[in-house]
Amino acid sequence: MKEGPLKINLREIMNKRLGTRSKLVPAFLLHGLERLVRQEELNHILEVAYPAEGSAFSRKVLEELGITLDVRGLENLPSGEAFEFVSNHPLGGLDGIALVGILGGKYGDENIRVLVNDMLMNVEPLRKVFLPVNKYGSQGREAARAIGEAYASGKQIVMFPAGLVSRRQPDGSIRDLTWQKSCVVKALESGRRMVPVHFEGLNSNKFYNLAYWRKKLGIGINLEQALLPSELCASKGASYRVTFGPPVDPAVYREKGKSPAVIAEMLRRYLYKL
């Protein structure tokens, strides 16, 4: 039984991550970080959405933010078939929340699984539709087993093959980085068709500029990731178009001699034409 809504507490997070060293973090820096991630606003959203879970939670979050979705192409999806949905990752949180809401509404939460970074498993209201992909050791074997079972079932699989949020490209466009070939490998192994999903949206210039200069200066830590919670809060009142393309059978291209990496890149390029 739930004790109450999930709350973000940076002090507790730092205590867990840093242990006794967290006491060395000045109070003014901690308060600055709380403002940066807009902790108070995020906790308000979580409180409003409580006790909803899964797609119901997603819809409540979108409603609280005043976000509207222009969803197109669901008629491209024949019933009775299990797909692998592959989406671009322009927003880094809100796009995942929206897809859970859309696909959970269509198929039911029990029939969808979203492959995510294992840190996102801390988002308790969405835990039942999430599957972690990057655990290690015995946990990694357990995660791999759970993913294998999900593919073997009739559940719809959703993933963001880039792994990271879209970045500004040399030509000035905002697009995903290279897609991991594993999305094609898993689809081929399970005999699934892949559904490209184009989520039309942008983060702020602040996010892209920080990502550019961080890389330019050779800083390995993903500093811009810290801005994603504030990007979610800043999306209030926004409208996004989500387009589901016709299913693509990767086996057709594999038979033509295309490697999984090449097929993944073909799909990534095709997605931006939807």
Descriptive notes:
With 274 residues, the protein is α/β, with parallel strands linked by helices. It has 11 helices and 9 strands. The chain has helices spanning 10-18, 27-36, 39-49, 54-65, 94-107, 137-152, 182-190, 205-216, 228-233, 250-255, 260-271; strands at residues 68-72, 83-87, 112-116, 130-132, 156-159, 167-168, 174-175, 193-200, 239-244. Strands 1-9-8-2-5-3-4 form a 7-stranded mixed β-sheet, sandwiched between helices. A two-stranded antiparallel ribbon has the order 6-7. Helix 3 packs across helix 4 (54-65). The N and C termini lie far apart (43 Å). The model has no long low-confidence stretch (mean pLDDT 91).
Order of helices and strands: HHHHEEHEEHEEEHEHHEHH
- Kindly state the number of beta strands: 9
Please give the order of strands in the largest beta sheet.
Answer: 1-9-8-2-5-3-4
What fraction of residues sit in β-strands?
A: 5-15%
Total of helices: 11
Largest sheet: 7 strands, mixed
Mean model confidence by pLDDT: 91
| Structural Rg | 19 Å
Low-pLDDT residue intervals, each spanning 5 or more residues: none
Keyword list:
9 strands; 11 helices; seven-stranded mixed sheet; 43% helix; two-stranded antiparallel ribbon; single chain; alpha/beta; globular; 274 residues
